[in-house]
Amino acid sequence: MNEDPVDALVATAPDGIDFDGLRVEESAGGYTFETPAATADGLDEAALRDTAAEDPHVGNWYFWHAVAPQTDARWAFLRWLEGGGDQPVPERYEALADGLTTEWGQLRVTVSLDGPAGRSYDLRHVDDAGTPADELDAHEAPLDARELAKHDDDGAYRPLKTAPSLRTGWQFPDLGAADVVEAVHAFYPATVQNWHREREGELDIDHWHETVERQTGIYGVVRTWDRGEGYEHVNWVAEACCDDSQCLKRREWDYDEETELDVDGGDGAFPCREPCSLVIAGARQWTKLEGEQSQTYEFELTPSEKEQVEEIIDAVADGRADDIREADVYDGANRYRTRFLRAKLFDDDGNLAGVETDE
Q1: Contacts of 173 (CB under 8 A, 6+ apart)
Q2: Angstrom distance (rounded) from CA 171 to CA 109
Q3: What is the pTM of this model?
Q4: pLDDT interval class at 1 (50, 70, 90)
Q5: How far is CA 175 from the centre of its chain?
Q6: How many helices and strands, by DSSP H and E, does the chain display?
Q7: pLDDT band for position 2 (50/70/90)?
Q8: Predicted pLDDT at 172
């Protein structure tokens, strides 16, 4: 809508207005215009217009009823971005004049006033908070976020949109209320909706057991991993895939309704309501691997070599192998140290210590 806020106020007054401290009513004695700071009774329309014209409560009421998206989740998200309901309108408008900033995963959202009844949203990566705007690629269309979300800074494809690997170097400098929610949805699909359902006590959670029970086709094999022998294997899955270092969602699902997992669910702003497709794909492979029988192998390693194997596994699991400097030979996962270990311990067929793998 592009109506004058005061015109809209006068048109709505007969139905009554009560929002964010603003109360407007029409009676036989005239209009009542009330805010936390002042009350005026018996106003005619001209006096109502004069009273309303300079009051920030009017622009605020108009924005939230005529400009902001009216679907519950999107409206609530925009209110959350600026702390709507937590601060009186004059103080909130004073803060909005300088810009209010909130983080959502790796997104940094700054909302500012755009006239008395409007908002402007700046969206960028949290790591670009201090980067000058002219050093960022500016975008206008909110759905550009879909393309930006596909690859990380190294150009690698991101199969999990909520992985903490969102690329940097971009900015949406001037989005409207509807468009900023659209862009956030493109970066992190369904996070706003699930966040809102959780706040309303309506988040429907599908736990591990019920999720794997409905798997069919090539993924149906994961059902065989639940053999009534406890849930330790699901702890391993959650630790591998759902840690904050791997996914920005906060895991709310457990083994089943009665059985909580032992590993922490994370600290993300938005919840994860069920094991995702990436978790199920991993579980499919682990179901096959965990079906193998253990074998006993004998190797001779020095204490330092044993510790180095452990450091290599840690470095790969934590995704820091590529960050280890070539000259840092004190790190067990250093490339030269790892190559030395391979040269010493592997035979020509790639067997560790010359011991073949039992089939």
Answers
A1: 122, 133, 138
A2: 10
A3: 0.89
A4: low
A5: 19
A6: 13, 11
A7: low
A8: 98
